[in-house]
Amino acid sequence: MKLFAKYLLSEKKMKYLFVVVYLFFIIYPAEAVTTKMFKVLDTCARYRLGEINANEAIEKLKLKLTNSSSSQPKDLVKKYCSVFTPNEKIEF
Question: I need a surface site. Which of 53, 57, 67, 79 has the fewest CB within 10 A?
């Protein structure tokens, strides 16, 4: 009987451990996505407010320029940031 009680106790612990590990793997990626999204929105807001220039925004957003014309960095950041802002009235 004691052996059976020990078995049940360890089975409950294993189920608990499984649930904890499972929840960790579900919650952690969601948190990482939220953090990355915040960084993108923060960078776009700082660019819009003039705290950083287009080249700094491109570096922080990890974007790649195809060629280095003077207006392309601004256009690239404007297009990229417009995807992340739901309000179409915002001009970058």
Answer: 67
Nearest to 42 by CA among 26, 27, 56: 56
Per-residue pLDDT tens digits for 27-67? 666 666 678 888 999 999 999 999 999 999 999 999 988 77
Name the token pair of 54: 């287009």
From residue 75, alpha-carbon distances to 55, 57, 78, 83, 91 in Å are: 11, 12, 5, 13, 11
Say how far apart CA 56 and CA 42 lie, in whole Å. 13
Q: Taking the domains of the chain in order of start, what are their residue ranges?
A: 2-83
